[in-house]
Structure formats: structure tokens, C-alpha cells
Amino acid sequence: MPFVELDTNLAAERLPPELPQKLCAATAAILGKPAERVNVTVRSGLPMVVSGSAEPCAQLLVSSIGVVGSAQQNQAHSARFFDFLTAELGLSTERIVIRFYPLEPWQIGKNRTVMTFL
Question: Which GO terms label this protein's molecular function in UniProt (predicted)?
């Protein structure tokens, strides 16, 4: 069950209208998880600084069980997420930062229990 959070200082009007759905589909393909399990949040118009500059930028947080736990996995995921984000947001790679967090099944609650028991 991946969780993806995109924060950007770009105004909402500058974002593609279907960005959350596109990011959901891209995440499913990149991480090899069903889209029905992907959770996406997009926050725009935020006061942000990346690499010391408030120029247009974005930060992506990717959390998931079992697929973001190694440097090798995240190197491959990073390349694909950067391709998606640069194309959709019109930002250079220097203005985007991605953070990967591995999750354990007991850290995600769903249907009144945790994923460990589902």
C-alpha cells in the first residue's frame, strides 16, 4: 500500500488537471503495485525552499511496504519518478527532491486493523 505525497510551491493553476490520477498510475507502474492500493496527496502553492532557493520546486515523499527498502530499488524508482515529475511539472531535476521511506505492515491501519492481519 504505497503512500505518495507531492508538495510544491507551484500554484494549483500551473498543475496538470489530472495530476493526482496520473501520479497514482505512475506510482503503481513504478513500484509494481495495483493502482487500487496507491494513495496520493498533492499539495500546491506551499511556501518552500529547495537547495536554498524558493524558485519553483517540488518534494516527493514515497512510502511503501517492501519496495523502497534498498539503494538499488530507490535508484531505479528515483529515475522513473524524476522522468514523470519533470514532464508533468516542467521543473528541472535540480528543483525536485524525492524521499523514500520503507514501511512495515504493522504501521498501516486499514479496515479497523493493520495490514499485518489483512
Answer: D-dopachrome decarboxylase activity; phenylpyruvate tautomerase activity; protease binding
